[in-house]
Amino acid sequence: MRRFLRSGHDPARERLKRDLFQFNKTVEHGFPHQPSALGYSQSLRILAIGTRSGAVKLYGAPGVEFMGLHRETNAVVQIHFLPGQCQLVTLLDDNSLHLWSLKVKGGVSELQEDGSFTLRGPPGAAPSATQITVVLPHSSRELLYLGTESGNVFVVQLPAFRTLEDRTISSDAVLQQLPEEARQRRVFEMVEALQEHPRNPDQVLIGYSRGLIVIWDLRASRVLCHFLSSQQLESVCWQRDGHVIVSCHSDGSYCQWPVSGDAPQPEPLRSCMPYGPFPCKAITKIFWLTTKQGLPFTIFQGGMPRASYGDRHCISVIHDGQQTAFDFTSRVIDFTVLTEADPAAAFDDPCALVVLAEEELVVIDLQAAGWPPVQPPYLASLHCSAITCSHHVSNIPLKLWERIVAAGSQQHTHFSTMEWPIDGGTSLAPAPPQRDLLLTGHEDGTVRFWDASGVCLRLLYKLSTVRVFLTDTDPSDSLNVQGEDEWPPLRKVGSFDPYSDDPRLGIQKIFLCKYSGYLAVAGTAGQVLVLELNDEEAEHSVAQVEADLLQDQEGYRWKGHERLCARPGPVRFEPGFQPFVLVQCQPPAVVTSLALHSEWRLVAFGTSHGFGLFDHQQRRQVFVKCTLHPSDQLALEGPLSRVKSLKKSLRQSFRRIRRSRVSSRKRRPAGPSGENGEAGAPAQARPRPLQGQEGAARPERAGVQSMELAPVQRRIEARSAEDSFTGFVRTLYFADTYLRDSSRHCPSLWAGTNGGTVYAFALRVPPAERRMDEPVRAEQAKEIQLMHRAPVVGILVLDGHNVPLPEPLEVAHDLSKSPDMQGGHQLLVVSEEQFKVFTLPKVSAKLKLKLTALEGSRVRRVSVAHFGSCRAEDYGEHHLAVLTNLGDVQVVSLPLLKPQVRYSCIRREDVSGIASCVFTKYGQGFYLISPSEFERFSLSTKWLVEPRCLVDSAETKSHSRPRNGSGPEKALDRTRNSGSQSDGEERRPGRVMEHALLNDERVLKEIQSTLEGDRGSYGDWRSQRVAVGYSLSNGGAE
Amino acid sequence: MNRSFHKSQTLRFYDCSAVEVKSKFGAEFRRFSLDRHKPGKFEDFYKLVVHTHHISNTDVTIGYADVHGDLLPINNDDNFCKAVSSANPLLRVFIQKREEAEHSSFGAGSLSRRRKALALREDGPRRRAHLHIGLPHDFRPVSSIIDVDILPETHRRVRLYRHGCQKPLGFYIRDGTSVRVAPQGLEKVPGIFISRMVPGGLAESTGLLAVDDEVLEVNGIEVAGKTLDQVTDMMIANSHNLIVTVKPANQRNNVVRGSRASGSSGRSSDSAASRHSLPATPALLPLQPDDADSDDEPDVVLEGVLEPPRPAPRPPVNGAGPASARDGPAHRLLSSLRADPRHSLALPLPPGAVEEHGPAVTL
Q: ipTM of the assembly?
């Protein structure tokens, strides 16, 4: 009977599960992968970015974020906000237009697609006739002017996308009104620019690619005047007062033209080639902006000398005799300039330049001297060097937080002090209940500290370990300085720098103790650094120790990379985390596991050869243990000899790609592919769709055939002790538990290997007063060989109440109850295939969950998480959060190992996404959805960080808010307003207040923060009422 | 040939080519050694044994304990060779008077279970007048067809016992398509098939699995909807006691129940699958994974491993010892130690110490 009850048929438990677990993907942090379009609304002050995969992301004030996904996964080519409205239009590369709007639902704005439209020409017309090149949303708010490749301008009425055929401005109609000399050689050219007169909505400027620009009177349907340029036109800018237009051209020149009704064909006022006289690349976009001071800003993209700087991605700013060519490390997708939003204002007064590059968003303050960059509060370029690992630390004590922020602010001095200029919308999300840090390790040897508390992932501090080592490319800093005085006046901006000096510097493991400020960082060449937080700059030498993990094993040759060479003598370190110990593993294989115990002052590290324990107080190695199997040649020789497995994995990934292609072909309907084929060539439209369908069907069949010819086979064989990489140390864990007998507990170190072995060492750490005098001793006490030999990915000790042992120093800081040392402790060993609970000190199996045998999935990540109930505020349970190789996240209960819930989270093919996943202590998680983006998900009903924001339509707010009016009052105001808008919003903080009072853990935190004595620095901008709720939760507010 | 049999006095002395033999007759022990690489002939061994025990005039049967604790007979050159080569490190020989020997004593049952009532079974069906067919437990099972009564006739549930078997499981699986009868007619569904058998592997030697058999279940869990990698992982995770339900490609050899003639079921194509392609759920109950745990192998735990007082000589890694003994904690430990010279540093057990179930080994 028990058996039938076992698997979750208990209704009470089912109810409780609903209160505890819930799966949500909440936010995407970081920079959108492969951005393809930029849009900005002056009135809403919201930025939009479109991507090649068809996503539209909107960003306003920090915390205001929206995302929309087109049904088609076509690239977004253009984004245009409708003037003064919460609506935008996107153009995809399949020539379809989509209307999106921000609608308020339940007090929160949501981005949704209202409709889509594809422009159709008359029957028999060439597809290029309706290929849209420019979109102009008219200020009348209901018309869209669409410039096409044929030179015709179509007019479409919104929101229904009704084509107004009688209003079409055909190229023929324009040509007829032109004088003879302008008419020749200008047929069939596409519309390159389309602009509305800044003051008169009845006039529209049409620029054709061959260089002809006309001003068209919409009412009278006639050409007011025209401008003829000898060069191909790239873009046009109409000055604010409408008297001058500026055109830029493919030869790198720009021209100013006077606009007046008197002269129908004026000559240019001025023509200029900023980087001439040698041939230059095209200037693709230009802004000519007026200021109160009188001297205008000229900002343009491109135009660099073709031969010497043709490969640069530059945007030049010219103002008042100053000229700077901002040099971006990746391609510039688009840029815009933030100016005075009120169309009636006399001057543009540009305040910031917003540049969307392929890999990052750069905002430059045009008001401060020297045009410094502004640090974005979001859209962080996570991948400025490739992410190699990540580590999450929940609930950072205020003191440490402030020290890290202080250390980081000294690194950010080159940033402008300007308030973030893109501040549209209002974030209604409750303030983050705690301070969370996400640490990312990068290929270039840096560790970045991100504020992961809320919706915006913000860089707090960057730590570089490079300084400890001697690298080949040290004088690189001086190279940039040399480039300063040359012409053109290039200036590197942005942080994206994918080139690593030395791959061995890559960070592989990070471990931060949030109570002591000790940080351990380990890298690709077997280097382990222990760092300490220091608020002052310091110059000292780093103690170096070599850990010989092979010990007496002889006759092996390491064929991998050499170890890094440490810089001799004292090194100057900037304020922040400063290394004081360097342990280098020998052979210098990549460090595969790392653990730090700040109370015992010990650091443990493991590689594919073994593991070691280092006493960083006495700077002495305690022991090393070789875990190698003598027959495991692969592990011995190093990564270079993994050719075989690499080949295998390559083969597998190719197969995977092929399979996924086959299946995606199957899924895609034949329609769009047929149309794509049509777009390529004009005429003969009839037989084409048929061909297209055939074309789509053929590769599918071919794919199936290839699968049948070479079926993917898998060998079924039990693992043996002789498998490769069995000695690879996967996990290390410190615990104070009953290792030897049930009467005495002692410090212990546990290590799990790839071959399913668990080693336990009893440690003797001298008491604090004799800590420097007596050595730390270690003795092997146990060795467990799991018979299924699957890699051990997690080790955990549960105390007498089945609660996981607390982190080091957690009890000392009164943040956790001391573990129960009365009842028997239990050991949980998680392998890739099974969860197993053993008794301690006598190790005998008690319980198990055979995950792989049951469902064929393997554990990739496991972490203990505390799940709070959304109903009973003080109720919570500790469980295991698990990610499998199929991309599912599961919760497995402790200590009974019952699967609780399972959600599919990551595509199983997304190997890097699965490998990058990191869980937090409160049931949230992060994984990379692209090299530059973390998806945040939550398994908890209680801890949910997601954007909740409101964007009010332009009318209500256009004048109400001062632009750079800063500070708490404004935000306070906003929160109040929003709170009164919906009752639901008011109730939320109230509930949080109750829970803060009830939850004793919270009260402890409050006590802690008062001890730290710092008030008001974190989250003080919250409204009074909300602050009452939160004052107990993190003590930051007043 | 007698040259190869040395009477050994110093049993503690460990020589890589010598196999220590402990021969037991009734309550008496004799110890001697054999050359591992040249054990000689059974006949000579028999003579030696009866000579050392001074029972030359008695008719005896000889048996030995193999690494799994099974009592197996020594009655010809082949199994004698096997006995000597698998001795790890000690060859324990049991001698019984032929008339006392019981029929059911050899076999897969663990020696430890029957240690009290040791009895050897003679090996001569020829001695009897009628033809004797060996009882199943005379042999270690390597495979069996199970649940015939609850499965459709077109399916076969095969259990592969890898306990102590040195053979690899020895088969490969692949993706494929299978045809099912659906309400709308025939439909193609993805399936998992056996793609290759390794010659000499366990799967091939059973004769119960064949190339192109469709895999329907692994240890009671349906594979429908699972990927090849998932099924691979499931099979490997269950490899110690693998139960595969297949739909054989060759339907001729099906077990036929009831009155139907065997000729009625010819070779069926995949499309012949019946609607009840998977057995009703009650049939699965005996296979619930938790029940299968009894077959599960316990993990090896070494407690209180201390620093060796002096480095023990590293045993030879000549691969003679079976690396993966599968039952009896002492044997398993011993064999894993032998297989892995690393342990010899941590655990300097003298070769004979294992017999005594020393305190170093617990379970």
A: 0.74
